[in-house]
Amino acid sequence: LFLFGAIFDESARKDDEVFRLAVADLNLNNEILETEKITISVEFVDGNNPFQAVCVFSLLFNRTTSHQHSSLFFLCACFF
Fold this sequence. Notes:
Largest sheet: 3 strands, parallel
Low-confidence stretches: 69-74
Distance between the termini: 27 Å
InterPro entries: IGluR_D
Shape: flat
Mean pLDDT: 71
Structural class: alpha/beta
Protein name: Glutamate receptor ionotropic, delta-2
Organism: Stegastes partitus
Number of strands: 3
């Protein structure tokens, strides 16, 4: 299981759509991901409030590490 978390500024709605489509394409490609699948978590934050982005990252990371899955991989990307 791969979990990708993305934190977007409120003005980055198109980036969110591109991110979701890219993950969907990867999940459909069995040559890249034979048995694994990617799940995503997207959060929107105020781009003028970096503290909020850090808090959201912490929540995403803690949510991810609470999984009991042995092959869990976490990546968080911030888009501002």
